[in-house]
Amino acid sequence: MELLLQQVMAGLANGAIYACMALAVVMIFQAIDHLNFAQGEMAMFSTFIAWQLIEWGQPYWVAFAVTVLVSFVAGILIDRVLFRPIRNAPVLSQVVAFIALFSILNSSAGQIWNYTIKSFPTPFGHKPLFGISLMDTHEAGMIGVTLAMLGLLYLFFRGTRLGLAMRAAAANPESARLVGIRVSWMTALGWGMAAAIGAVAGMLIAPVVFLEPNMMLGVLLYGFAGAVLGGLTSPAGAVLGGFAVGVIENLAGTFIPYFGRELKLSIALILIVVVLMFRPSGMFGRRVVSRV
Amino acid sequence: MKRLTRRTILAAAPSAVVLAAPFVARAKDYGPGVTDSEIKIGNTGPYSGPASSYSAVPKSQVAYWKMINDQGGINGRKINFISYDDAYTPPKTVEMARKLAEEDKVLLIASPLGTPTNSAIWHYMNQKKVPQLFVATGATKWDDPKGHPWTIGWQPNYQSEGRIYATYILKEKPDGKIGVLYQNDDFGKDYLKGLKDGLGDKKAMVVIEASYETTDPTVDSQVVDMKSKGVDIFVNTAIPKFAAQAIRKAGEIQWKPLHILSSIGNSVGATLKPAGFENAKDIVSDFYLKDPSDRKWKDDDGFKSWIAFMDKYLPDADKSDAGYVAGSSLAATLAQVLKQCGDELTRENVMKQAGNLHDFTVPMLLPGIKVNTTPTDFAPVKQVQMGKFDGQRWGLFGPVLTGAVT
Amino acid sequence: MTAPPEEIAAKEALPFAAAPAAGAEAAVRVPRVGRIAYRELAIAAVIAVALVLPWVVTSFVMFQLTQVMIYGLAILGLNLLTGFNGQFSLGHSAFYGIGAYTAAILMHNYGVGYIWTLPAAGGVCFIVGFLFGLPALRLQNLYLALATFTLATVMPQILKFHGLEEWTGGVQGLVVDQPDPPAFLPVDSDQWLYYFTLAVVLVMFAAAANLIHSRSGRAVMAIRDHPIAAAAMGINNSLYKTLTFGVSALYTGVAGALGALAVAFVAPDSFTIFLSIALLVGLVVGGVGSIPGCLLGGLFVLYVPNIAESVSTGLAGAIYGVILLLVIFLMPSGMAGFARAVWARLSRMRQI
């Protein structure tokens, strides 16, 4: 029983990482209706910028704030410069453009900052939470910040005019334009927000996994799985999905005999696909109804 | 004066040959890629792709040959070192190896990196009789002069290291419970095999074999699992990123097993510093190369020459990345082989000299560890030395050991 | 409906008042005939060049071109599913790997001749693809992407699994012998492999073109464009979608088997998600929904990483990304789409 509890807690700790990433994935999906393969690399690059600022002597919170701001602007720029010209291109072409962005960011980060792992500071410290060794203060802080971001996003989208405008632009661009909403700027804003959330995610994740150019690849895949499991239209679902993926994977690795240890990633993903069989839009996703 | 009969001429023949010998012996014998002024050498490595963190190994070789050329080359010939990216995918390695051998027509291919990548070209190189020298991986199979006479490894192979850990465990803690953390691919499984083979009848001491993939974010749950199962000997064969995570997590959950780290992940700068020195105290590991981030070497001559090389040719590189040590050491060994070839620069002679290294040393090998090969022994570096971390630096102890794997 | 040909011809003929009726008929017909002839001429020319190449280029370039054809075939498999049927797949590296390992295991463990490994690989992959297509019916777009991505991730893990090591060789992989040329032909084993691959690729490309231009092909494309309308017209969506999955997997599986013969080695690290991504990139760059585009995609997948690397080894990935972006910007419908647009503009200019 204690082992079960321990592994669930360890799974939640890992899951916090995935939940954070899943939130960023869903955020961009809501803005542009596509999966951004380069999301993880953008987050990684932002975290390196923060690291560099800290290396140059800036205090943590200054580096944090500057990085989030820079990432926001960079996200908007990437949208205006790279994706606006190909907005009308086929979906697959846009997906490939994301892949290209991934490649560019990954390679540049490796060239600029090399591949040795670096430790990244955390404002929460690394002590065991309440003295129990199941979760440490940073992991708890990560969960807290993720939930806080989720709350802020909820308030923004439901409670402000700008949030409403963004939702309208994503749901029905033509009608939104007719009402006077500048759709392309809404998309750019969505990109900026997703980049900023990604930066926060990166800065929360790096203290756990150590900062290096390839740190986000696995995280993005798990985050994607979590987002899909929760439902791509539901930010809360994505966060829950992220936690679920972490717990499932840990339990599979510990308790399934013979296959479990080596194949735990496969088992977790297969389980997600099975869930999708029964709920094809994810656990909490809304079925999108389109006019015939 | 003897008469010039057939007999006298025949009798004089040997001495004539001997007199002419210096002129005959100096005649040059060139294989492909060699001219009076140049030797072409090929190489492949992961400059891009998921294994790009090992790009330091080929990069340092490129820089090393530049240094050799600046110093005048080898026996008056400059080295044209052609290095291609294979992104750690075997089909690409095959393509690049064929390009080097068939289009660039190199004399030999030096230190391709990775086990599956080298496995992919193993047969081709031996079929086409192109030397595959000092491969940058520790798989056991490269020491096979009978079956694959054109391939030779370099570093102590992973199974021998595993055996050394087993011997150490049987001496220090013969009744403990072992947990192994290993990467789910060739080198990780090799370590595991070596450890279990070395334990022999006491194989059952291994209660947990925890693997991880390079795409896994953390290995924290594997560590937690080990503590909960009562493991008190932790064999940590992970690469720096995951080794550091494991060390840090063990410290966090206050788990203090007998902690054995492999040579892959024991760098002070790349692993122990991010993990936290307090967490790394009393960890034991094995070494054959000097750790550049360990300050105890700062007055050592070999170390100083390496630092000078890095400062001049790779000034922006992170010196705590062990890949730069490995790459320059591989290149230095090849430089010796080429020197020994003299003017007989054929592929056959290259292999002969590769199997003819006696007590050769490179600046970054530990004192006491030498490179030795014979025509039946294709394992250049076989020795390691154990060390223990005191919270600040590694303290080497004990004799130089060899894992003796056939 | 448009006006009858005679009326159009009459209107077009007005500036050339002396044009006879027969000439007007011909004025309508000739461009269409000319276009078909050009395409078939082009195909014939390409085949002729391909047949002659081994005697002109080095062994190494021939090896590269063999790989180009193999990637082109793999991309064609993906094209059938994603381009023509609209089902997004990130999992084709798994089918490629299954095909490659089927061939390797049959040859290595059971001594089967290399020719038989191709249909075996195709058959195994067809079944796997079909079976995977069944649950995939319920999933759309990104959810399907995740499911296929799962397939791509699970495959290397299974291949490395110690329980199956006896058959798969585990992490060490399996060595495959390169096929020997038949004794009566004056070619070496590299050339033989090239011609063998060329023959297989030609047959399969022709079959795919045939399929696409048939009623089944139109049904497949109808499902992509308007699934509800297609169902309303009596097309059995589920059957066609799963069959397409199977056929798509078959094509990529045969490509995988050929790949195993060409590289003479299989290992789990050769069949990761990165291969799936490379095939997707090749598909888009070549031209989604274009059969000849697949070969252009194959050229891109093989040569562009080399080009990127020759510019800068440290930033090879970044250069690759930049080239990819340029291609997407300049040719959003892929190289085949671009070629078609250029051709259309040229023929319009000729008519004026």
Question: What features would you describe in this structure?
Answer:
Chain A has 292 residues and is mainly α. Chain A has a single domain (2-278), classed as ABC transporter involved in vitamin B12 uptake, BtuC (Orthogonal Bundle). Chain A has helices spanning 2-32, 39-55, 60-83, 91-113, 137-159, 161-171, 173-178, 183-209, 216-230, 235-255, 260-278. In chain A, helix 2 (39-55) crosses helix 8. Chain A is globular. The mean pLDDT of chain A is 85. By secondary structure, chain B is an alpha/beta fold. Chain B has two domains: 38-156 and 299-375, Response regulator (Rossmann fold, 3-Layer(aba) Sandwich); 158-287 and 386-402, Response regulator (Rossmann fold, 3-Layer(aba) Sandwich). Chain B has helices spanning 6-25, 56-70, 90-103, 115-127, 158-172, 186-199, 220-228, 240-252, 268-275, 301-313, 322-341, 347-354, and strands at 29-30, 38-45, 78-85, 108-110, 132-133, 178-183, 206-212, 233-236, 258-261, 284-287, 344-345, 383-389, 394-402. The longest helix of chain B has 20 residues, at 6-25. Chain B is globular, with a radius of gyration of 24 Å. Chain C has one domain (59-351): Orthogonal Bundle (ABC transporter involved in vitamin B12 uptake, BtuC), CATH 1.10.3470. Chain C contains 15 helices and two strands. Residues 7-31 of chain C have low confidence and may be disordered. The chains are: A mainly alpha (292), B alpha/beta (406), C mainly alpha (352). Chains in contact: A-B, A-C, B-C. Chains A and C meet through helix 4, helix 9 and helix 11 of A and helix 6, helix 12 and helix 14 of C.
CATH architecture of chain A: Orthogonal Bundle
**Portion of residues within helices of chain A:** over 70%
**Apparent shape of chain B:** globular
Query: Count of DSSP E strands of chain B?
Result: 13
Derived from helix and strand composition plus strand pairing, the structural class of chain A reads mainly alpha
Strand order of the largest sheet of chain B: 7-6-8-9-10-12-13
Major sheet of chain A: none
